[in-house]
Amino acid sequence: MAELLSVRDLRIEATSYPPGEPPKTVTLVDNVSFELGQGKVLGLIGESGAGKSTIGLATLAYGRGGARITGGQVMLNNSDILKLAPGGVRALRGARVCYVAQSAAAAFNPAHRLGDQVIEASLLHGIMGRDEATERATELFKVLGLPSPETFGQRYPHQVSGGQLQRAMTAMALCPKPDLIVFDEPTTALDVTTQIDVLAAIKNAIAQTGTAALYITHDLAVIAQISDDIMVLRHGKMVEYGSAKQIIEDPEQEYTRALVNVRASKRAEAKDQSGVLLKVTDISAGYGHVKVLNGVSLHLPKGQTLAVVGESGSGKSTLARVITGLLPPTQGATLFEGKELSPALAQRTRDELRRIQMIYQIADTAMNPRQTVGEIIGRPLTFYFGHSGSKKSERVRQLLDQIEMGDRFADRYPAELSGGQKQRVAIARALAAEPELILCDEPTSALDPLVAEGILQLLAKLQEDTAVSYLFITHDIAIVRAIADSVAVMHRGKLVRFGPKSRVLSPPFDDYTDLLLKSVPEMKLGWLERVLEDRRMASADN
Amino acid sequence: MNFRAIPLSAWIGIIGVAIAFFCAIFGPWIAPFGETDVVGDVWAPPGGEFLFGTDNLGRDLLSRLIFGARTTILVALAATVLSFALGMLLSFAAAVTGGIVDQVLSRVNDLMMSIPMLIFALVVLAVLPQSLLVLVLVMAVLDSTRVYRLGRAVALDVAVMEFVEAARLRGEGTGWIIFREILPNTLAPLLAEFGLRFAFSILFLSTLSFLGLGIQPPAADWGGMVKDNKDGILFGVSAALIPGAAIAFLAICVNLIVDWLLKRASSLRGGRGDG
Description:
By secondary structure, chain A is of the alpha/beta class. In chain A, β14 and β15 form a beta hairpin. Chain A is globular. Chain B is an all-alpha fold.
């Protein structure tokens, strides 16, 4: 018997229109073939631009943003869906193949109740009546572990959390009893502690309904938990295709090996953590009446790295804003080399500003798109040191060398750089001020794993060369292991745990740190089951 | 700058505007007759000695059109440039500073916008002494309220971007943030508005002249010429249509250029691709 879904020699092209040049045809996906059986899960993994979402959408016979499917076959139940008439495609989408998008918050219509949206496709396709569909939705809410499944459908999207929305979207996809569901990075936008619940719910739901699934992600550790087979993609081509066990435990290709080992690097912490560069004491801050930080005290030794860990909303970015002076605290003080900094930015001297620099999460918005790389890096040189002319361009060249990019980038605009290169330029801009402290606000979380690894290595090298200190905000424990000397764990605006890395990351744990550490996916098969088993036992004990 | 990259529509606009400016600069030398000389019959038909015919007093229409280009373009351009300088400076300052400055400026702006522009201009111009400078200033101030609205909206969009925050963190002054960080990123919509406002200024000046508050006779200006000859339309004389067509021609040409500049600005390397 043939497989449920069989994709053969898929080729997808798009036409790009660079200004001032003739249009070019770009091949997004080339020569990709795979097969997927009933109830199985295939993981598609690759960095951004690898074509994984494009392939996922092709199984709905859809090309996004001008992408055209120009070759190959997509056989679903032995019929080629690429040859369907428009009416046939409409009957297919939302009924036999469903799609779960990355950002559920953006994909739900905020004006309608969740329940109505979940059953909409089933009603439109006439698969079931309203009562039956509502009943099935309630059933699915239960399977996906949503709170009070009977009344969950009555709520509006803004009334539930991000993780719950993502599960509601999975319910929406499962509702019309499709043959195949395409999950497009369903957990990427979620916190690790939420991600694990959603992953477990999706896995459970797939197992119970017997639906086949394509699971797209850039995180190999996530995909290892949920897939039967894995396909590794790069630049629109297949790199490796095999069972999950083979890919994780015995990868054949160099690229796959790099992906498997990406989060494995570790660094020993500094022995002497006595000297203090930055010290914040009993800081509280908030926006209006909302209190975001509550009595946070921590310190950072000179030339070392303090990682601030927590999920979104824990107040870690707010802490950085307080230290920079963008948000004056309601109480507490910031001491830099023993001297108190004025709480507001406007009262700080130019030299105080120079000594604390910042790197942002999204390099795209952190750099003026109308300035060249040379102007971006050169401005701090002029502003703080009065460099100009050949002295300035010489220094810009040095800085570009330091971030391992060449001189030829000085005349480029940010839009012409890749994500990793942009973040490197942002680092160079911070470095140009010759700071003693750089605040890094999740500088790698928007990047592909291998690119992120390169940025982390660069930051470590720069710390060796210039003895700069980092306050590194992250939600990723693997990064903490790789770069930190000391760690501060934050939860809901409070400091939960603070100290040298070895002490913070070893037992006995408090409840939150324990949850956080256990939620980080590991590059091992069966990790998810083990964690869930542990949790069940823990709750049985209680 | 590649001349071949300029599309045909932009060339038409450039040539049209060049002709208008040429007339404005060299008017006295190329006009066949003087600005105020009565040289023929009232409302002589086009053709022969008078290419476009004569007006209600027997003055040569072509000559007055050429002389009128000077006042019309000068006043409209000066008013538009001034209104943009004023509107953009205030709106960017409001967007960057925020708080009480923003509130005061925005509410005063609302106040001015709540009075119909034409009535406001009529009242002010009726009270103030009649001179070209006063006319330009009144038009500029009234027009700047519209520029302020747009400028504040686009600047607020950019002011919350992280690169502006980064500039603040560096300790940059408000001047740098306005002119170096925000202005280059708001050029596209402002440029589009400039073309539109320039055309509106010509029309507004024409309206004022038509009502007798703009350029004072016997000096020629296009709007005033429409007014002078409007009665002719009743008798089937087309004299009023010719200065009207000139206004339309200039407005279209300016917008053809602006459309092209807009396309260039938004597709520039490093552009945000909006606009």
